[in-house]
Amino acid sequence: MQNSSSIFNKSILPAIIVVKPVLLLTILFLSVQVAAVQLPDKEKQAVAVEYMTGSGDMHGMRIAYRPDFNYDLDIPLIGETRLSWEASLNLFDLHGSARNEATYGISVSPIFSKALPNISNNYPLTLEFGIGVAYVHEKKFGGVNIGSVYQFEDRLGLLIGLDENQNSEIAVRYIHYSNGGLNTKNPGLDFLSLAYIYRF
């Protein structure tokens, strides 16, 4: 009896804790169909610097680039949505450990963005969602074995424009890394992040 309880705690319970909020926020993303301000100028490219904190005292930094390959889509039930592409260089570091191990990686992800109703025209709001692929240089670091150097990078974020044209934005994101079952070891890494985005 103790064995089955232990299996539940190690496998199912963490999945419920992670998946439930992601599902709820995704449903919110899919159901927003009200009038909202336009998305940023699609002819502009963007760079971002992002700080992440999460699983097991793990911290990270991302430097990201989005080229001006943006496509406006009219998706049934969702409405006007923008598809962009993002490439990033990621650094992961474990603090509070005698080993203080670190590793780096790269990722590429399609990003879907949808404008939300605004509290103020000076601070436009955007919701974004993406599932991309990542390569991590070490599959074991900071005492965590992530099972594979190949990972999926999932994100759900809220962007707040700092000006009317959204040339500068701050983003708050939930980011999840998982090897998607490519290996029997798949603990996953969860991060909350804060990013600054600049379009030019």
Task: Give your account of this protein's structure.
This protein is of the alpha+beta class. It has one helix and eleven strands, in the order αβββββββββββ. The protein has one helix spanning 2-31; strands at residues 46-54, 58-66, 71-75, 79-94, 102-116, 125-136, 140-141, 144-145, 150-161, 168-178, 189-199. The strands form two sheets. An eight-stranded antiparallel beta barrel has the order 1-2-4-5-6-9-10-11. Strands 7-8 form a two-stranded antiparallel ribbon. A hairpin with a 3-residue loop joins β1 and β2 (58-66). The longest helix has 30 residues, at 2-31. It is elongated and about 45 Å long. The model is unreliable at 4-13 and 32-36 (pLDDT under 50).
Low-confidence stretches: 4-13, 32-36
Kindly estimate the percentage of residues that lie in beta strands according to DSSP.
over 45%
Share of helix, binned? 10-25%
How many beta strands in the DSSP annotation? Answer: 11
Please describe the topology of this protein.
Elements: H1 2-31, E1 46-54, E2 58-66, E3 71-75, E4 79-94, E5 102-116, E6 125-136, E7 140-141, E8 144-145, E9 150-161, E10 168-178, E11 189-199
Antiparallel strand pairs: 1-2, 1-11, 2-4, 3-4, 4-5, 5-6, 6-9, 7-8, 9-10, 10-11
Identify the notable features of this structure and list them briefly:
8-stranded antiparallel β-barrel; 11 strands; 1 helix; two-stranded antiparallel ribbon; elongated; alpha+beta; 200 residues
